[in-house]
Amino acid sequence: MKKEIEAEQAYVSVVYERFDALRDGSYQHFVDGIGAEQSPTHQAKLERDVAAQHHSSRAARLSAAEHGLVLGRLDVDDDAPLYIGRAGIYDEEYDPLLVDWRAPAAIPFYRATPAERLGVRRRRHIHLKGRSVIRLDDDLLALDELGEDEIKHLTGEAALLTSLKSARTGRMADIVATIQAEQDRVIRSGSEGILVVEGGPGTGKTVVALHRAAYLLYTHRERLSKNGVLVVGPNATFVRYIDQVLPGLGETDVVLASMGELYPGVATSRPDTEAAAVVKGDLRMAAVLEQAVRNNERAPIGGMKVVTDRDTYVLDDQTCRRIRDEAQELARRAQQPHNRMRRFVVRAVLEELTSQALTAIESVLDGVEAPDENEDEVDQELSGLIDRDALHQELRSSPGVREALDVLWPELTPEGLLGDLLTDPVLRADVAPQLSVDERNAVQRADRGSWTVADVPLLDEIATLVGELDATLDRLAGQRMLAEMERSRHTEEERQLVSDAYDVAMDMAIDEEVAMPVDAELVLSRYHDTGPDATLSQRARRDREWRYGHVIVDEAQELSPMAWRLLLRRCPTLSMTVVGDIAQTSAPDGVTSWAEVLDPLAAGRWRRARLTVNYRSTEAIMAVASDVLAAGGSDGAAPRAVREGGDLPWSWCVAPDQLATVLPEIATRELAALGEGTLAFVVPVSLLARSMAAIKPYHPGARGAGDPDMLDAQVAVLTSEQAKGLEFDAAIVVAPDEIIADSPRGYSDLYVALTRPTRRLGVVYSGELPAGLSRLDPVGEYRPSA
Ligand SMILES: Nc1ncnc2c1ncn2[C@@H]1O[C@H](COP(=O)(O)OP(=O)(O)OP(=O)(O)O)[C@@H](O)[C@H]1O
Fold first, then answer.
1. What are the structural domains, with CATH classification, of the chain?
2. Reported ipTM exceeds the 0.90 cut
3. Cα separation of the two ends of the chain
4. Annotated binding site for ATP, which residues?
5. Which tens digits make up the pLDDT trace of 544-596?
6. Residue 618: how many CA atoms within 13 Å on its side-chain side?
């Protein structure tokens, strides 16, 4: 083996040498690009910027691949061996030294098995430390050379098991070295339509979805690097948990966000009651919001008076109705949002008032007798008086006319309208007759101050119905933006460009009553095409109307129907990967059937794939989880664990008042048993504060879900909902009976809690153990020491 390692080392060294040369070359191109003399023409400048950008992203992608660059080697039947790596590397003659793991030629590295070996004789995993080869793991696939036992092997089993047994760091790592065949099929599945990836806990749904993003960006770079990929996770902690994976694979044209972050400019700091969240997520809210907007398109009964300095006019109810109906009909036909139609209403009202003013002037003129000698002069004066345009202008700037317009067709902001709806029960009764009184009451709040996660899809829905922000807000945003630019490091030329765009927008806003938001970075990025100041993900993140090339949704079983509508708006092409497990649904309005959610939204355009093997937990842990799944009445089975055996999961019965106080001692013992790794206490909501208070004095590094350092802590204290999607080396589930009792989907929450650990599982309870946990070992070693 020593000789083999030496031979592989020689190859790996050649690959690294070439890698260094390419990366340095790309970097140099980039430096040359930005350092080039200022070009006189815009075109040349644009080309230079694009080239510099290209070289800079290539250099960044190569740098990300440096660690563990070479993944392995394939020996095939009739050809030279093929080396697979994190990036494609060619020698000077353009012959491949290393094939990118995402290239079609790399497929057999992940899919070949002894039963279907795809021309592969041997697959070799090459383990590197720095740039040195430290170990080789071989799978011999040629059947005539293998025994029956080996034929059943998983792909790259030795490498896989080494990877699975390693202690967790608190951050998800990539799995390019050990992707399994069923996972590889999901990763490389075509980009069109919605792909639903189902699978039990620990089957790699999240990690596979992220590798799929990397694969799609590699395969469709041209298209996706313009629009980017959006990855949506259930909460900010989860997003932090996965945020290293794609940059680690060299992919940065990706926006990672939780649902609460998908409406730019709004932070979701407020909690919702369960009942409120259910109502807000209900599909009926789409019609309620639509009605709330229509409520602001008015034709007052009895018409209205418009008082100006010149005169008092009357818009009778027939005129008001005609203007409103025409505006609504036009909006429907031209698919225009509410605020866009204000200019139509402004024009119609001004036409009407101008006609009334002219009629009034003409009736005055009819009675005027001009003295003969001044006839011409007086005629001129009078014709000046009836200048239609001047009258128009005069009426437009009259406060009385503006007030009337604000009654007939006010400009709306999503925040204003939703604030009204949530704080005003009378308004709700008016626009939401389809909701029951209890449902309408459930969403009532006293103030408008802040927003909840369930408000985000509603704000977004309203934003679609009303269109851009009104001119006043734009003016403020524009001023803020200009001030910001003054402080930032933009060149004089760039500042001028944005300032010009801002002026044009303001002129249009004043002339046409059209709202025109100006985003400095957008203006500059159009100018530069790919400005170095704003990356694609920065620009996409702050643009509500950004349309992504592909959207990945994790823990998708938790999404409400209104949240689905928001996500589909972000990706009208429906190129999406949706990852979830219905057995883990805890949200009361979450998914219970994919068909029920997706058929109404994308009939015939979605398909399923299933992952069946658990890579996270040991066989012993999954046996307990399986029993609980059955006890909770689920017809599905828990996935089979790839890691055989494992420490016996234990239970410990304590007095009710000891449920929190025994935790510090358990933490000490579990950490000792782990040696290295992370520990989580998964507790019912009612015990969260008490558990943390009990543990902290003994383990000051312990952290809760709200703490940004939680993922790096050795001990975490969480609820089942907060733990969803995360994993730890050991998990202690506290008071399982309360976890079950806390929610209508309590057994799903317990299932989630039990499937978090990789190595060790314990349950602390008082009274009776709930059904499904009888397999646990009631161990004596956890008796209190005092
Ligand atoms: N092929 C693989 N090689 C190495 N590790 C893997 C492989 N597949 C999955 N894993 C590991 O298994 C663990 C579980 O993966 P992941 O979190 O993606 O599962 P999941 O299906 O999303 O789970 P959950 O439903 O509980 O959120 C992770 O640590 C992941 O890195």
1. 1-166 (no CATH), 194-263+544-611 (3.40.50.300), 298-369+377-408 (no CATH), 616-778 (3.40.50.300)
2. yes
3. 54
4. 199-206
5. 889 999 999 998 988 999 999 999 999 999 999 999 888 777 777 777 789 98
6. 17
